[in-house]
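Still learning folds. Look over my entry:

…
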Amino acid sequence: MPPTTEVMLRSLPPQHREIIVATYFHHRTTGEAAKLLGLSPATAKARLYQAMRDLSLMVATHRPEHAGPYATSPP
């Protein structure tokens, strides 16, 4: 049985998990999330990109039919 989305989210590093939660689950912009988390906007954007890439790779591995645009091999 593939892991649930919640399990995959919990397996992310804390800084990646917090930016996803701050933006997607709390409906904030990246700028708002950056301010809330004490990050520069550039750092918040980079973390969000990395988090989404990692999450997409997990989904692609366990649920290939649901793979998104970030599901490419890491550099």
Notes: The radius of gyration is 13 Å.
